Amino acid sequence: MPQAAAAGAEVPVPAAAPAPSSSCRPSAAPIPHNIDFRPACAADTAAAAAMFAAAFEEDPEIQYIYKGVKQHQYKPAVQALYSKCTRLFFCRKGCPSWCAIDAATQELIGAASITPLKAYPGLLTYATHGLLLGRQWPSLSCLRRMWQTSDASEAAEEHPHLGITAELSFLGVTPAYQGRGVGRQLLQAILAAWDAQQGGPLILYTAQSKALGLYQSQGFEVLEVQEIGGAQLTIWYMHRPQLQP
Length: 245
Hints:
The chain is α+β, with helices and mostly antiparallel strands. It has eight helices and eight strands; from the N terminus they run ββαααββαααβαβαββ.
């Protein structure tokens, strides 16, 4: 299931996640100072879903999944997908979630979430949350490509010696604030909270090469690189060991 592992990442080192998307670009505008970072709550879910849909509309993974979809179907499908995914993963019990709020407007401009592997939903849960059928799949080909793309929990199981306990499953910033340091500060905030509770090693995946530098600056290392659809899509899996107290 597509995850938002990093929209709006700054780019100190060219190197990727669901474009996520062309939403990753070098910092140009000044870093805003009126942004509050706090734990997210259930009331933030709808705003986070809308933000993720906008942040990842041009994500390489999303573009691969919806390849060939008519223009008038594309945006509604992406919005439906992130609406359902966010309701399932964001602020899920036992899944730490954080958000970035513009203090002047109280607009949610960024969000991040960590999903422990033991809390990862199964196929039945996907079905009951409407993720296997619905407006998010204009064709069966889209659904088929989604299942081809990535599976962080499976990747973690292939490396048992790393002791990975959770996935950084969401990290996104609204387009107007991308490239201004918000994504970096949000990532630092959720990782600090995770480390404070001795959360354990993390995994993430991204389809954005430009996001690799951001993740590497926060302790992630490339674990493996996967080519999908005859190299139409490249997925980077990254691992971050548990920090020692």
